[in-house]
Amino acid sequence: MTETPIIGDDVAVLVLEDGTRYEGRAYGARGRTLGEAVFATGMTGYQETLTDPSYAGQIVLMTAPHIGNTGMNDVDMESSRIWVAGFVVRDPSRVVSNFRSQRSLDDDLAAAGIVGISRIDTRAVTRRIRSGGAMRAGIFSGPDALLSAGEQLELVRSGAEMTGQNLSGTVSTTEPYRLEAHGERVGTVAVLDLGVKTSTLNYLAERGFDVHVLPQTVTAEEILEMHPDALFFSNGPGDPGASDRHVELLRTTLRAGVPYFGICFGNQLLGRALGFGTYKLPFGHRGINQPVLDKSTGRVEITAHNHGFAVDAPIDRVSDSSEGFGRVEVSHYDLNDNVVEGLNCLDIPAFSVQYHPESAAGPHDANYLFDRFRDMVIASKENNA
């Protein structure tokens, strides 16, 4: 069947910084958006992806061809808004057929001002990103689609690169807030919001923690004055190499003996606090089907990821922290490329993982890590009693 020609206000173009252009149909809001082009490999969970603050500044391409058939609802929101800079799909669903749906994806994108593009060969774009790496990009529709190819490319190349960007101030809460523990109370956990997901907070509360969510501007002194039973650093966008203040905050609290658990960006910051470096991956890990080996059990977990940076630590041996925190081991690594996916401190109560164990959206293989955190905090409290 012949596709209807794309004309007028429906025209949109995706432009990559290497000059590659893909023409398609406008999707969501009309206008112009710039960001880092990345691809996510999950076949479902687009609402969780869109509302995950760690996707801020990124134009997200979904590799699954058919997107939008389950619509959007208020329950699956991982934050209060859509955070992606732009959205790229092959075939947006023309109808919404899920009983939980309250709105269409297209309507939510338009209402949030998210410029998107559809009806392009997303396989070709994915191959381009895999070979050339994540790169700056732009989507142009409406009047901006009429700009010359040269003008559009100049706008893309004038955009900021992800390396060196500190975006935690963009996504973090501005005021502290609290969630009450569910069931038997274990203690309090101070959560540094670097782009935290709602599901993460709920899982911590379900493990018996009173969850105190703090803005990224909080100081180590303010955290220690709270006397929390544990500290948690969340996922978030940007370059961990640009977050020196949060690294120093973490070092101060670790030296004070506060148990620590970090996810995603929190894993990278723990790596830096321990004395390891970080580096940018060619095209990153994004999606809900990434295989990770847990070295302590030998089990392979299928996990949810969104990271473009990684910790530079040896996966085959125990290391000594150059910052005086004792022995450190890589606890998990990705079976696709041996990238570090978890750190475990052997001499202090601290560990972290690079992926998203809250399983929103994604498999539940790594949900046990919240139990491990709970057990670590209980053991630490008993040892200090």
Low-confidence stretches: none
Radius of gyration: 21 Å
Biggest beta sheet summary: 11 strands, mixed
The percentage of residues in β strands lies in 25-35%
Average pLDDT reading: 93
The number of distinct helices, counting runs of at least 4 residues, comes to 10
Which class of secondary structure composition applies to the elements? alpha/beta
Task: Provide a descriptive summary of the structure in words.
This protein has 385 residues and is of the alpha/beta class. The protein has helices spanning 46-50, 105-111, 122-132, 149-157, 168-171, 198-206, 220-226, 244-255, 265-274, 368-383; strands at 11-16, 21-28, 32-40, 58-62, 66-67, 86-88, 91-92, 115-118, 135-141, 177-179, 187-192, 209-214, 230-233, 260-263, 277-294, 299-312, 319-320, 327-334, 340-345, 350-353. Helix 8 links the parallel strand 13 and strand 14 (260-263). Helix 8 (244-255) packs across helix 9 (265-274).
Can you lay out the helices and strands and say which pair or pack?
Elements: E1 11-16, E2 21-28, E3 32-40, H1 46-50, E4 58-62, E5 66-67, E6 86-88, E7 91-92, H2 105-111, E8 115-118, H3 122-132, E9 135-141, H4 149-157, H5 168-171, E10 177-179, E11 187-192, H6 198-206, E12 209-214, H7 220-226, E13 230-233, H8 244-255, E14 260-263, H9 265-274, E15 277-294, E16 299-312, E17 319-320, E18 327-334, E19 340-345, E20 350-353, H10 368-383
Parallel strand pairs: 3-4, 4-6, 5-7, 6-8, 11-12, 11-13, 13-14, 14-20
Antiparallel strand pairs: 1-2, 1-9, 2-8, 3-9, 10-12, 15-16, 15-18, 17-18, 18-19, 19-20
